[in-house]
Each structure stands twice: as structure tokens, then as C-alpha cells.
Specification:
- The chain is an all-alpha fold.
- It has two helices and no strands.
- The model has no long low-confidence stretch (mean pLDDT 89).
- The radius of gyration is 16 Å and the shape is elongated.
Length: 74
């Protein structure tokens, strides 16, 4: 039987996993919806997000998204 600490650890792990997945989906949708279609930027960033998973989503959020928002206001 699980002790209280093990149960809290499992619950915390599930919550973090769900939040990370929601963030990943949000970044993928943001990229596909708002990224300008000039050149291959949209395709490359979508592939980075898909293949690098959570790391790709974090990279997109920290590197490309602020730059795009400065350029296009979206």
C-alpha cells in the first residue's frame, strides 16, 4: 500500500505531466497558427517542437515567440 509521501509524489508527477503536455500543445498550436509563413520558419519550428518535445516547446517559447511578437504583434 502507498504511504502518504508516495501518493503525494505520484499526484505531483501527474499534475506536472499534464501541465507540461498542455504547454507543449499550446506552443505547437501557437506556432502553427501565428507563425508567419515566410520561408520555412513555420515548418522548421513545428518540427523542432514535435521532435524535441518539451525542450522544443521551451525553446520556441523563449527564443522565437518573443521575436515574433515584436515583429508582428501576435
Amino acid at each position: 500500500m502507498f504511504g502518504i509521501l508516495e501518493l503525494l509524489f505520484v499526484l505531483l508527477s501527474v499534475v506536472i505531466g499534464v501541465l507540461a503536455t498542455v504547454f507543449w500543445v499550446w506552443m505547437l498550436i501557437d506556432c502553427l497558427k501565428n507563425e508567419p509563413s515566410m520561408g520555412n520558419d513555420k515548418i522548421i519550428w513545428a518540427l523542432v517542437i514535435v521532435f524535441l518535445s518539451y525542450l522544443g516547446a521551451i525553446l520556441y517559447y523563449l527564443v522565437r515567440r518573443p521575436e515574433r511578437m515584436k515583429q508582428t504583434g501576435q
